[in-house]
Specification:
68% of the residues lie in helices and 0% in strands. With 68 residues, the chain is mainly alpha-helical.
């Protein structure tokens, strides 16, 4: 469950960065009252923590047998 939440937050963050890169429009800041607002900072922090969590996905055993 945590993996799916983390991946969802990363998708949101990736789409936000794409809109910043392509259109210079920060959707999170727009929706939450500016990039300096507390809500925006919480969203940015959650996306960052999700990225750190998802690093573990690269090193997990996929088939569950213990073999690499």
């Amino acid at each position: 469950m945590v993996d799916k939440i983390a991946l969802t937050l990363l998708i949101i963050g990736g789409l936000n960065w794409g809109s910043v890169g392509l259109f210079q429009f920060d959707l999170v800041a727009f929706a939450c009252g500016g990039s300096g607002s507390m809500i925006s900072r919480v969203v940015y922090t959650l996306v960052g923590l999700s990225a750190v969590w998802c690093i573990s996905l690269l090193f997990r055993d996929r088939d569950g047998t213990g073999r690499t």
